């Protein structure tokens, strides 16, 4: 069965896309979860839809439209909530909707029917072109290098932003950089699960990984592995049952999220011993 | 004679239209141990935050190590009153203490063996050796406080700012934390914010009450606790030792 599936190039590409996107997802998802910026990440992702619209209108690869758009969204949301006295959720909500609106108008302006638009909203891992695979790989590399270089700084601003500031770190600049990495991760994930469901794959593997980890690097590795596992499981199930791949991946992840919490709940039931870690 | 470590001259701070500090003049010299007492909302934490460069002031002048507040992060250790952190954050005590080396490192620089040696020493001084592998979410209040002191020490500071290190800690643990602070005062300049007027008067070289305005006392004057206007919360201790 497996051999038959991977005889097809699109299946091999799909598998590669799942594995490659899991790298970005697990690493950046870890920061999203420990810094509790899931909603910001959702805002960046949805604003990115504007980029897809613009890319589609200009007739270029929509992913190339998403990169500048999501980076701009990350910087704007971050700056608005940190510097201008705008409530964070207001800034996020505004960008979220405005980005979607720009996308819808751009697509409407382009004559003709946009058949593959659905796949950007909800993902279609089975149609990932080779060019996009190369781009995902490149973005993975950027994310790994930046996170490796700034691991101690990112840990500090995630855990205790005030102490990071007292230690002389430029916390706002680092935070904006972190949001930019989230934006790049969104670009990576668009092909796999689509804009609407990015948040789930960004947070669920990392959230489960946190339950099992004592350090940030440990959490990242576990999140990458879990993310790859969910993606491949979802991909396989979607082929088997002939259902939408992105949505199946999310359902698999959601199922394991519930399972992990149920397991923890049961484990702590009998007069929890204090040594439990 | 060395220049003062902290110098505040008619310092005023407004937060959201409310004057929190008004005309505070204060000088902390090298090797001093200043106890800062006063009611809640009296501006104690705000004063520390100004010294750290975290809070802007609206009038007056503040010099820390002869420069602007916040310009010498590597020389100051800070123990916050409460750490607002996620108890599920995956970080061990050792990694928390390692964070204290941050002010000594450049951007992109990773921690090296020297950092780890200094951290081990700080862990030893704060007496948290047996906790190093524990996740910080599993620590008790007193253990966490010691870990935070270790983090501050790991930066090899000359000035240590402690914000109510014994709040929400049981009395026995309090004494051990004060013993630790007493050992540290031999080599560090310390500013300690606290409610335990009775306990600290044995240790400090200067004591000041802060309630928007600051009043400086010599430690022996503090014998009369009532004159400080601070409700005695501790069991009676003979202060005229």
Helix and strand topology:
The complex is a heterodimer of chains A (277) and B (241).
Chain A: H1 2-6, H2 9-34, H3 38-58, H4 62-82, H5 88-109, H6 117-122, H7 130-149, H8 151-159, H9 161-166, H10 171-193, H11 198-212, H12 216-241, H13 245-268
Chain B: E1 6-15, E2 18-28, E3 33-37, H1 44-52, E4 59-64, E5 76-79, H2 93-98, H3 113-126, H4 141-154, E6 159-163, H5 171-184, E7 189-193, H6 197-200, E8 206-211, E9 213-217
Parallel strand pairs in B: 3-7, 3-8, 5-6, 6-7
Antiparallel strand pairs in B: 1-2, 1-4, 8-9
Strands of chain B, count: 9
Q: Quickly give the structural class of chain B.
A: alpha/beta
Strand content of chain A: under 5%
What is the gyration radius of chain A calculated from CA atoms? 19 Å
Which percent band covers the strand fraction of chain B? 15-25%
Tell me which oligomeric state these chains represent.
heterodimer
**Largest sheet geometry of chain A:** none
* Overall number of structural domains of chain B: 1
For the record, the CATH class of chain A is Mainly Alpha
The CATH topology assignment of chain B is Rossmann fold
What's the mean pLDDT score of chain A?
90
Sum up the overall morphology of chain B in one term. Answer: globular
Return the structural class of chain A.
Answer: mainly alpha
Mass-distribution shape of chain A:
globular
Sheet with the most strands of chain B?
A: 6 strands, mixed
Parts with pLDDT < 50 across at least 5 consecutive residues of chain A:
none
CATH architecture of chain B: 3-Layer(aba) Sandwich
In CATH terms, the superfamily of chain A is: ABC transporter involved in vitamin B12 uptake, BtuC
């Amino acid at each position: 069965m497996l051999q038959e599936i991977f005889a097809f190039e699109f299946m091999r590409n799909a598998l590669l896309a799942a594995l490659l996107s899991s790298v970005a997802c697990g690493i950046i998802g870890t920061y999203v979860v420990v810094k509790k910026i899931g909603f910001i990440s959702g805002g960046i992702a949805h604003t990115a839809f504007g980029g897809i619209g613009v890319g589609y209108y200009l007739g270029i690869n929509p992913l190339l439209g998403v990169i500048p758009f999501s980076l701009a969204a990350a910087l704007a949301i971050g700056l608005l909530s940190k510097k201008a006295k705008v409530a964070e959720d207001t800034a996020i909500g505004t960008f979220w909707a405005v980005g979607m609106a720009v996308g819808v108008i751009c697509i409407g302006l382009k004559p003709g029917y946009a058949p593959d638009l659905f796949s950007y909203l909800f993902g279609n891992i089975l149609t990932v072109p080779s060019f996009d695979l190369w781009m995902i790989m490149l973005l993975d590399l950027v994310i790994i290098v930046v996170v490796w270089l700034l691991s101690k700084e990112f840990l500090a601003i995630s855990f205790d932003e005030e102490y990071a500031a007292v230690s002389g770190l430029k916390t706002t600049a680092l935070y904006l950089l972190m949001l930019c990495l989230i934006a790049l991760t969104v670009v990576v994930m668009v092909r796999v699960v689509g804009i609407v469901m990015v948040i789930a794959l960004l947070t669920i593997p990392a959230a489960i990984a946190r339950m099992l980890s004592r350090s940030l690097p440990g959490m990242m590795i576990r999140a990458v592995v879990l993310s790859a596992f969910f993606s491949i499981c979802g991909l396989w199930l979607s082929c088997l049952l002939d259902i939408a791949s992105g949505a199946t991946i999310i359902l698999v992840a959601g199922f394991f999220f519930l399972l992990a919490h149920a397991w923890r709940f049961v484990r702590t039931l009998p007069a929890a011993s204090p040594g439990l870690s | 004679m060395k220049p003062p470590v902290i110098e505040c001259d008619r310092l005023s701070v407004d937060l959201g239209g409310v004057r929190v500090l008004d005309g505070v003049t204060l000088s902390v010299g090298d090797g001093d141990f200043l106890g800062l007492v006063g009611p809640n909302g009296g501006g104690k934490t705000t004063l520390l935050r100004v010294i750290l460069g975290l809070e802007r002031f609206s009038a007056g002048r503040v010099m820390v190590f002869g420069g602007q507040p916040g310009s010498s992060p590597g020389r100051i250790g800070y123990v916050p009153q409460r750490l607002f952190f996620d108890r599920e954050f995956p970080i061990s005590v050792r990694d928390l203490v390692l964070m204290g080396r941050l002010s000594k490192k450049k951007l992109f620089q990773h921690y090296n063996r020297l950092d780890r040696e200094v951290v081990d020493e700080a862990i030893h001084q704060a007496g948290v050796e047996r906790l190093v592998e524990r996740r910080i979410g599993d620590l008790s209040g007193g253990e966490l406080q010691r870990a935070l002191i270790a983090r501050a020490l790991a930066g090899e500071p000359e000035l240590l700012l402690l914000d109510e290190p014994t709040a929400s800690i049981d009395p026995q643990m309090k004494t051990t934390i004060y013993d630790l602070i007493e050992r540290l005062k031999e080599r560090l300049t310390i500013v300690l914010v606290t409610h335990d007027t009775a306990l600290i008067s044995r240790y400090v070289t200067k004591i000041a009450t802060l309630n928007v305005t600051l009043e400086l006392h010599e430690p022996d004057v503090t014998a009369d606790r009532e004159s400080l206007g601070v409700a005695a919360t501790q069991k009676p201790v003979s202060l005229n030792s």
